[in-house]
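Researcher: Re-running this chain for the archive, since the previous output was lost when a drive failed. Same request as before.
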Amino acid sequence: MKSASLISAAAALLLACGKDRPPSSAAVPVTVAAVGLQPVPFELVAVGTVEPIQTVTIQPQVSGQLNRVSFREGDEVGRGQVLFQIDSRPFAAALAQAQAILARDRAGAINARQELERSTRLAEQQYITAQEYEQARASAGAAEATLAADEAAVEQARLSLQYATIRAPIGGRTGSLMVREGNLVRENATILVTINQIRPILVRFAVPASNLGVIQRYRKARIPVAATPSGGDAEAEGSLSFVDNTVDSTTGTIMLKGEFQNRDGTLWPGGFVNVRTRLFVQDSALVVPSAAVIGGQQGTYVFVVRDSTADMKKVTVDREAGDLSVVQAGELAPGDRVVTDGQLLLRPGARVQVRQ
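Model: Regenerated structure tokens:
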């Protein structure tokens, strides 16, 4: 009984002492990453729209019946390739008639010139009157004028005959065929097909106008542009080809265009693409994982782990590059360990346990 009383008294004393001692704080499990120095590209990211360099709407320049379509809609055609054939017989007949009139009037012009030469000699010898001479000269001039008009008519008829065969003015891909064989087409009124040039091709995109200065600084060199179609993984490589001469005051952006060779047809007119424009590469940038940066009312900061203790350190983020954040030099040092996971449970001076 006496020993049991002693044990109970000792337990009560230990319990009383435990109430006066503050509980020890548990270490917070965290994941860390090292601050590093590495080359980081300066890139502008935007969403762009693909557009063809040239778009041509094919319309006939003469009226007539469409006899032949020499391609299938959606085909890729080359410059100068025959696309359509309009019935050329009326134009061939008109050309033959114009050539016959030209031959007739050419003979009349030759005769008028010969008459003028004879009249000139006779007038010098005063065998004819001045009025007769002037009449011969006027007839020769009229014959020459008629001959010039006939030559123009022949050329017009020849052009009409050539226009009956419609060729592709540019190389590119054809769209939907609007008129089928056998239909009548009207001069400059009927749309036959539209051709888009897709090799090379353009991508139009807008970036904040605050970047205009750095764009102009590096524009003399080739500025690479990469474009990835939305929902795809194939990336096309091109270069910056155009900077607009006006800033959009409504959106505060400036429109740029990149040119891509598009040999494999990755980019398609009208499609949306994710664009990355690389202006330069910063050789030794001080970087931390973006997951380590926390935004607060007093600015951005990170937790730095030293001797199993987390200290809060304010940082200034210059820019982000993928999953990395570039911070100003002097605020952190290469090799510092920053918390990338678990920092929401930390406070300055908290004990941490680094997880692998």
